[in-house]
Amino acid sequence: MDLTAQEAQPAILSVTGIGKTYVEPVLADVDLDLHAGEVLALTGENGAGKSTLSKIIGGLVDPTTGTMRLGGSAYAPASRSAAEALGVRMVMQELNLLPTLSVAENLFLNRLPQSGPLRLGWIDRRKLREDAREAMAQVGLDAIDPDTLVGELGIGHQQMVEIARNLIGDCRVLILDEPTAMLTSREVDLLFEQIGRLKARGVALVYISHRLEELARVAEQIAILRDGRLVHADRMANLTSDQIVTLMVGREIGERIDLGVRNIGAPLLKVEGMGRGDVVRDVSFEVCAGEIFGVSGLIGAGRTELMRLIYGADVKDRGTVSLAPTPGAAPVPVQIATPTDAVREGIALITEDRKGEGLLLPLPIAANVSLGNIGAVARHGVVDARRENALAMKQIQAMRIRSAGPAQPVGELSGGNQQKVVIGRWLARDCRVLLFDEPTRGIDVGAKFDIYGLMGALTREGRALVVVSSDLRELMLICDRIGVMSAGRMTGIFSRDDWSQDALLAAAFAGYRSREALLHAPVTNEAGST
């Protein structure tokens, strides 16, 4: 059936005049239709209202205005479970899994098969495993034992378990919120294969992502939100990536960024012989005042582990961290055994897991900003609310954080604005060295350029920045030099005039090739014979 015929059919789900207000309106007057066998790409900047709209459809949030219809009948789910009972499923960015239970138990948590003549609570383990294997096979998890604890899986596999859980039973509408953020390319291919099967079964899908190349690959239709309103809806084939970005942010964004006039000074941070087992192996580099130093590499190359060792979050086996005591002075070794030591020395880590490790989501912006600088807002050991709010307001204004004010819970902010809160905490502390681990993951293109502009401002103040990113284009856009990690080692450091994408990728594979060569090399005795 072609798209024209599909669109002539009644919509599976209709959204009319939907709006949501918290302290301020975050969604207003949105109209959308979903059709069987069709993928609707839902995109927009962080804070545009994508997650709020999807949570309303999924039964997690009640709309303030508007109505919905599912299969021609009024649809107003009172909860997520009520929506799921009607065939509306949602895979959220925050995984809804229990790490201490097995994969099979997570998949069928609310419908565990029972055994025995009276079904007195005995779980039929054999049927549970069989059913789990069937569900797992749909998303390419055939090689994993259904009895494996979810907590033992990597984050990518956990994401696939979450997707598999939502495909069990009747599914009429499936919402995928940034489903590929933590997946490998192979897992992405498996997901897209499954999406193709779902479309063939007549399932309507909403696909939320900032990755425009994925939207072009998977979606027939696109809806673009900006500032809580639907600004454009069209066939995916009718829009280019540049047009989509312009509609998302309300302005044109180029592929180059002006970080301003910067004076790169003397080395401020020096790392020598840093190592921990085989994960990080004798890594050395230095970063100058006013410089952005990028760290590239494949997943598992040791990039995050290196940042944690520098910050004292993990215990190193060997290596030293040195800092310049004054501008222009030679770096001298400092003792960093814990993150407290690092902060005291002026080193901050903006973690890749901002929700799990960087923020206290239920607490207001003010409390999250002051976490890194309690001494500035407390009097006699008691936090002064006036000082705390003033500190938070300063960062809100300086970093253009979209919020209702210092009292708004961080959990209500978009991903990009949450990231700004984390950065603002350390700027209030006036740290000289900032370690950014995947600073723009899950952030829309407009917020990314805001973060890049902020990085430029930090370097103009003479701070040293280390940026870990899986997006090679991002590093090439903003960095002065890039160090490449491979199999735990730093296999090369490239300046802007010397690097190319091919050279950076070759360095990323170099450590693994040398390791393979060692594994397959012939063993010789002292005389040199094999």
Automatic annotation (TrEMBL):
<dbReference type="GO" id="GO:0005886">
    <property type="term" value="C:plasma membrane"/>
</dbReference>
<protein>
    <submittedName>
        <fullName>Galactose/methyl galactoside import ATP-binding protein MglA</fullName>
    </submittedName>
</protein>
<dbReference type="InterPro" id="IPR050107">
    <property type="entry name" value="ABC_carbohydrate_import_ATPase"/>
</dbReference>
<keyword id="KW-0997">Cell inner membrane</keyword>
<dbReference type="InterPro" id="IPR003593">
    <property type="entry name" value="AAA+_ATPase"/>
</dbReference>
<keyword id="KW-1278">Translocase</keyword>
<keyword id="KW-0547">Nucleotide-binding</keyword>
<feature type="domain" description="ABC transporter">
    <location>
        <begin position="259"/>
        <end position="512"/>
    </location>
</feature>
<feature type="domain" description="ABC transporter">
    <location>
        <begin position="10"/>
        <end position="252"/>
    </location>
</feature>
<dbReference type="InterPro" id="IPR017871">
    <property type="entry name" value="ABC_transporter-like_CS"/>
</dbReference>
<dbReference type="GO" id="GO:0005524">
    <property type="term" value="F:ATP binding"/>
</dbReference>
<keyword id="KW-0677">Repeat</keyword>
<dbReference type="InterPro" id="IPR003439">
    <property type="entry name" value="ABC_transporter-like_ATP-bd"/>
</dbReference>
<dbReference type="GO" id="GO:0016887">
    <property type="term" value="F:ATP hydrolysis activity"/>
</dbReference>
<keyword id="KW-0067">ATP-binding</keyword>
<keyword id="KW-0813">Transport</keyword>
<keyword id="KW-0472">Membrane</keyword>
<dbReference type="Pfam" id="PF00005">
    <property type="entry name" value="ABC_tran"/>
</dbReference>
<keyword id="KW-1003">Cell membrane</keyword>
<keyword id="KW-0762">Sugar transport</keyword>
<dbReference type="InterPro" id="IPR027417">
    <property type="entry name" value="P-loop_NTPase"/>
</dbReference>
